[in-house]
Write a structure and sequence with these properties.
Blueprint (H helix, E strand, L loop, with lengths): L2 H14 L5 H13 L16 H15 L4 H5 L1 E4 L2 E4 L12 H10 L5 E5 L5 H9 L4 E6 L2 H13 L6 E5 L13 E6 L14 H4 L15 H13 E10 L3 H9 L5 E8 L5 E8 L1
Parallel strand pairs: 3-4, 3-6, 4-5, 6-7
Antiparallel strand pairs: 1-2, 7-9, 8-9
Length: 281
Amino acid sequence: MKLYELRSECVGILLREGIERPFYTVDLIISKVLDIERALLVTKGEMEIPAQKCVGILSMTEKRSARVPLSYILGEAEFYGRPFEVGEGCLIPRPETELLVEEMLNACPDASMFADWCTGSGCIGLTLLLENQNLSGYGIDSSQIALNWAVLNTNKYDLNSRFNLILNSDPSVCDIAPGSLDFIVANPPYIPSKEVNGLMSDVKDYEPIEALDGGEDGAKLYRLFFENFPRFLKDGGLMGFETGGDEQAEIIISMAPGNFVLMNRIFDYNGILRHLTWKKN
């Protein structure tokens, strides 16, 4: 089958199921399987595609038509301009989370040690390390499956000596020395339980529920964090959290410890209050 014929068939599969951006999606799949830059596909329309490759491309397209996340199908997601390996059991990195990385890099240029709680794929912590060669840190998650992906990405970027991964679901018993961290960053589950079923099927049916469901008001883990994170931070240390939006952010602000000063509110690309940072007095 020629490439233009295969592309047309795949696009038709996605169009029938109402999948968003079908041409873009098919081109990414084809590019991945054939190892050809996506921009060059337009010049390869007459190229004959081996039957085995056709089967693989069609299979991946069918998975996407069933709403399997494209990042899971491709086995990677881009974050801060770099590919990170992702798959089942791992939250897919979102573009708005890049804003939290930028904020912590700008706010803590002289930091040496940090923790990335709810690290998942490790994309936040590893990006911080890649952008600041003077940093070392911890990547903590309650899911061993998620940490397995963080291991792959830590190996991918050869950062084992600077990123210590920890399996932990309770910060009160986490083996990090008191007063040792310059900052803590976290993107915890923050969707209220009652809203999880209203998420797109791509998300609720495939991404790990424990990385999405934040309890009754979505703020369950923030309470745990505020109780325990202060002891890990140096005086003047910072905390930076991703949140579920304006309303939830106000709930989180109201529960912050008294010796922490709210430093910044960061809005995402849609004008939603997405990140909050505090400084320990």
